[in-house]
Structure of Glyoxalase:
Amino acid sequence: MKFSWVTVMVNNMDESLAFYTEIVGLKFNRRLNAEAGVELAFLGEGETKVELICNQAIEKVSIGEDISLGFQVNNLDETMKMFKEKGIALHSGPFQPNPHLKFFYIADPNGLKIQFIEVLLKQ
């Protein structure tokens, strides 16, 4: 068995695609209509993807508070600076729970927490 994708329900496909490609930096893979009023998009490279689903029958998607998507970056300070320059507020952090790791969160357009992580030292 292999992990293939994580699905994120979104309110607005164009807004979410812009966020995940321009802000998070995921590569656009493909976009398609699944059925009337339901659109899918896949993002990312390699085996694991992020799948966005926009269903026009759902007025507002509900995102749980206890879930996040995590992305590793080379330099957390530079990433935070880039978000600040783009007017994107931090949701929380930065945190450094140990000498090996620091991270912070922002929120996507639907309220899903997106975590950016820098590994400081190899364990």
Notes: The radius of gyration is 15 Å.
